[in-house]
Acetyltransferase (Dyadobacter luticola), 196 residues
Amino acid sequence: MIVYGAGGHAKVICDVINADGGSITAVFDDDVGINQFLDYPVYPYSPNLFPEEPIVLAIGDNATRGNIARRICHRFVNVIHPSALITNNINIGAGNFVMHRVVIQAGSRIGNHCIINTGAIVEHDAVIGDFVHIAPGAIVCGSVTVGDFTLVGAGATLVPNIVIGKNCVIGAGSVIIRDIPDNVTVCGNPGRVIKH
Ligand SMILES: CC(=O)SCCNC(=O)CCNC(=O)[C@H](O)C(C)(C)COP(=O)(O)OP(=O)(O)OC[C@H]1O[C@@H](n2cnc3c(N)ncnc32)[C@H](O)[C@@H]1OP(=O)(O)O
């Protein structure tokens, strides 16, 4: 497995890969000054380096992860910690990262390149777009939709049946009780738009 990114998020990803019995061949990073990350050699990205190896993007920022994903030729895989509880009846894309003690319930759909972070809960029939980050401890209730590139902050709660737009930030600890349009920052309880 190749890990792209040699920052804090990559430390957690390497830990999860090892916990799941995987092995890491190398790390790619755009900073040519970095030669070593943990026990792994670091190279600038090249489609010709380890082309048969699957890759995961260890980039926490959703927009940056999106930009990098567009220029990767390697095959993306999901990295899922063994403690995550994922029912059989879900649909999950590629390049996703599911951390320790996450729960994903029946009927949910997870897109591509999402981070479902430590202890987050994605309830039944939720639809999570691409490049979404559900931060630690956040709760996405039943039948909620979360648009592409949205960050649901740590410990936030999205009540059932609402639609969160694309490219939004939901503040840490917020409780969102209504639909949210695209491109806004929302926080508080009940959540209110603070920025467009
Ligand atoms: C492994 C990991 O660590 S994953 C980490 C995942 N990241 C997160 O969970 C962080 C999510 N980010 C936040 O919650 C941020 O506070 C944001 C994005 C909502 C707002 O950040 P900024 O845009 O910098 O706003 P700023 O700090 O200037 O605050 C603006 C106002 O919103 C309020 N506010 C900010 N965040 C919150 C919040 N989470 N809940 C309630 N109110 C908030 C501030 O008190 C301030 O109010 P005021 O104008 O009355 O003083």
Remarks:
- The pocket of acetyl coenzyme *A is lined by residues 117, 135-136, 153-154, 169, 171-174, 185, 187-188, 194-195 (CB under 6 Å).
- The chain has two helices and 24 strands.
